[in-house]
Amino acid sequence: MTAKTRSHWKEYGTALCATLITATAGTCYGWPSPTLPYLQSKESYIPTSQDEGSWIVSIMILCSALTPIPSAYFADRFGRKTTLLLGAIPFILGWVLVIVAKSVAVLYVARMFSGLGYGIVYTVAPMYTGEIATNEVRGALSTLITLMNKVGILAQYCIGPFVSMRTLAAINLILPISFVITFIFLPESPYYYLKFERSERAERSLRSLRTDDIRLELKNIEINVQEDMKNKGSWGDLIFEATNRKAMWISIGVFTIQQLCGSAAVVAYAQIIFKSTESKIDPYQESIILGCVQVATCTLSVILVDRVGRKPLLLLSALGVGLMNAIVVYIICYAIGLSTVPYVIIGEMFPTNVKLYASCVAHIYTGISMFAVQKLFQVVKDSWGIYTAFWGFAVFSLLGLAYMLIALPETKGKSFANIQAGLKRDVARDNASKLMTVEY
């Protein structure tokens, strides 16, 4: 074990326990792939049409757009840790309802609960992992959010084809319960404590996350938080503060590319997509291969994100997704960047006083976009064929490549203060260019 690994093991351990809840979200996300073929078969004890199946897939993501605002309030008022613990409750209720379901309507309600939890997790988890990490490993810890999500998806692909729907739901209950049991003993974000001037608690929190001396880091965090909190953040600051507005447009642009490349449809409809290719390999086996490739590539992304940088991974990912329509190659390209790095971006681009609001807006937008992709995929597939959908995904991916090449700054290895300073310089340069244009 290297010195660098030893110096960060507490951060990795804490982030790993925290991201058990995103693995739970992954189980909900991947669950339709092995379950839909059964529900739509003659053997199903809950007969389900194709349209009902598309709603079972997509209604979870639609409901995820309902909880970012309340979860942002809770995280700001009661803490990131407490809010993440509360986020486990809807997942637990959702899986219990799947176990007892005897109609499509109950499955809808179950998926709605899962969606509420999904929205909480993806609003607060990027903030928590970003705030407990040092600059050197912040990218890796933030990409763990997506890696663990992919582990949850892989579990569905591997277990789902071999057990009943109720047994799968019962197995999935283990994750949110395990998350609560482990995460309840872990520290709150020191940024949250310092925001409310609880210096002693912040020191204890940071000490439990580090293996070396924390005095200088604690002082720097305190200075950054005080600077951020001189002006209390508000929703309006995302629009009227030029630096925040620029960061918001960059983040929304990256999340748009992430969704319009089609990943949400590929993951949820994996077995159905593979069935349509008439391959000699069984669809469930191809799904397992897909899931393994996702996890392996996301692991590679965790390793590379703080070495190569955010922007190169995103550019490579968008280019590959746009050019490669073979599903396994597509998912490799997606997982290396677009799957993981956007959650790093949203955790890094905003000051403490508006970070929650920005995360909230991004995830409401993402939820609506993901719902549209999942719901419309079935419509486009039935009306114009599956290849039409994938050509559309390719076009949006290549457009996204051009956008990120122009608009996205690199944040690798930079402190929050340095990132904000860079955005301010970009805004000043943009304003100067506009002024010169007007004068000319």
UniProtKB/TrEMBL annotation:
Membrane topology designation: Multi-pass membrane protein
This protein's GO CC annotations: plasma membrane
Recorded GO MF terms: transmembrane transporter activity
Annotated localization: Cell membrane
PROSITE patterns attached to this UniProt entry: MFS (PS50850), SUGAR_TRANSPORT_1 (PS00216), SUGAR_TRANSPORT_2 (PS00217)
Keywords from the named record: Cell membrane, Glycoprotein, Membrane, Sugar transport, Transmembrane, Transmembrane helix, Transport
Annotated TM spans: 54-75, 82-101, 107-128, 140-163, 169-194, 247-268, 288-306, 313-336, 356-373, 385-406
Name the record gives this protein: Major facilitator superfamily (MFS) profile domain-containing protein
Pfam families: Sugar_tr (PF00083)
InterPro entries cross-referenced by the UniProt entry: MFS_dom, MFS_sugar_transport-like, MFS_trans_sf, MFS_Trehalose_Transporter, Sugar/inositol_transpt, Sugar_transporter_CS
Domain Major facilitator superfamily (MFS) profile: 1-412
Keyword Transmembrane helix included in the entry's annotation: yes
